[in-house]
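B., you asked whether I could sanity-check this one before it goes into the benchmark set. Here's the sequence:
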Amino acid sequence: MSTSGVCATPERKSSVTVVLNPVAGRASKPGVREHIAELFLAAGVDAQIIVLREGEDPTEAAHVASADASTVVAAGGDGTVRLVASGLVGTPAVLGVLPLGTFNHFARDLHLPLDLESAVATIATHRVGRVDVGRVNDHVFLNNSSIGIYPSIIETREQLRRQGYRKWPAFVLATVRILRHYRGVVVKIEADGRQAVYRTPFVFVGNNEYEVDGIGLGRRAALDGSLLFVYLTPRVRTGDLPKLLAKALLGRVRRSGAFEIVSATDVRIDTATARRIRVALDGEIVMMTTPLHFRTVPRALGVVVPPA
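And here's what the prediction gave me:
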C-alpha cells in the first residue's frame, strides 16, 4: 500500500470504540467528546467513546477495546496514535485516526483528512488497508524513532514547560540551548550484517523512507515498503544543523553529501558509553537500554484509509 495509490477494500460495518486523549492538542478544547459523538451518530455509527483518565495507559485501553470492537480509533496526536496502535498489533481490530494533535504526521502520510467531520466520515466507510510497523526492543513506532539531539531537546522543552513556558517558546529555547552545547553521540550501527561506527548529532530511523529535500521534507510516499531507513550526519557538527535544515528546504541536501542513509529490515545500534539512553518514538521520549534492536514488521497493522 502506498499513500498515492491505496490498495484496500471496504470492510463490513462494525463496532467502533474511540480512545480519546483529553490533553492532546485540539482534544483539550471543551465539548470535544460530545462533538465526536454527534459526528459519529450523524455518520450512522454508534461509537463508544473512552476518555482516558490521567495516568491511564492508552495501549491497554486499546487492547481491551479490541476484544469487542473491530475498529479502535485513536483520538489525539501521534503519541496517542502510536500507543493505541501498540495495543492493536496482533489483534483482528483495525486502527482509525481522529487527528487532534499538533503535527499529525501519521494521518498526513496516510492522506487522512485533518478536520474532524471528514475524519469521522472516513472511519464510517470502514475501508481498510495495511501498513508496516517499526519495532525497537519492546516498543512499537509508526513514524520514526531517534536518538541524539532530538530527545535531548524534548527533555529540555518539558523541563521549561514545567517552569511555566508555553510549548513553542519552550521548544525554541530548548533547541537553542542544546545546539550550543551538544557534542553528538558515538554509535555502532549494524544493518543487515554491515557494521560501521559514527559520531553524529543524531540517528533517525524511519518506518519506510522519508523525503529529505524540498517541499516534501519530512513526508513518506509509502507506508508499506517493508524497510527501515536510517539517517545520520557524521560530517556535520551540531552547530551546523540549522544550515543543513535550510539546505534541505531548498532541495540541496542530498547532493551536499551531508547525510549517510542506510536502508535495512533489521538494524542494531549501540552507543560507546551510556547503557540507558533517551529514545524518541513518534515524538515521545522513552528511556531504553542499549543495544537498540530496530526491525520492520511488514503490514502488521490494519488501518482505516481514505477513498482512493
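One thing to flag: Residues 167-181 form the longest helix (15 residues). Otherwise nothing jumped out at me.
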